[in-house]
Amino acid sequence: MKSYLADSNIFLRLFLQDNPKQSKKSASYISDAKDGKIEIVVSSEIIPEIEYVLRKVYKASKGVVIEHLSGIIKTSYIKVEKRNIWIEAINLYSNNNIDLMDALLYAEAKDQDLSVLSFDEDFKKIKIK
After folding, report:
1. By the 8 A CB rule, do 60 and 54 touch?
2. Which candidate, 97, 78, 101, places its Cα nearest to that of 26?
3. How many CA atoms, within 13 angstroms, populate the side-chain half-sphere of residue 65?
């Protein structure tokens, strides 16, 4: 089985449906991964890029962003780097008024039994749910 490292635009076209040809091809890639024909790998760096484009360029709501990111992260036939950390980060992002990178940093620190070193007071306000 051939493995592919997915760029953010594969998911963006699928979510936004703004380019019919590319959206159809993206859906085909996802279907092939589901059927075990290919492996799709998502690097950790792609997730915040997707969030940024959805929120800043397309003005998607935080709820829509969370729904899309959760869809990628929780899909078993997509290989997501640091999946468990991302699941925790999305949970933190969803339940706290913090940005995604702060949620990721907090989740990674927790996973490694570390504390976050930052001047950002938001880290003190994070509530775990």
Report:
1. yes
2. 78
3. 22
Return the pLDDT at 129: 56
The residue among 107, 88, 93 whose CA lies nearest residue 65 is 93
In sequence order, the 6+-apart residues with CB closer than 8 A to the CB of 92 are: 98, 103, 106, 107, 126, 128
- Taking the CA atoms of 78, 82, 88 and 93 in sequence, report the sign of the dihedral they define: negative
- Which H helix or E strand runs over 85? helix 83-95
Q: For residue 128, what pLDDT band results from cuts at 50, 70 and 90?
A: low
Burial of 3 by CB count in 10 Å (0-12 exposed, 13-18 middle, 19+ buried)? exposed
Give the start-to-end residue ranges of the domains of the chain.
Answer: 1-81, 83-129
Taken in order 87, 89, 95, 101, is the CA torsion positive or negative? negative
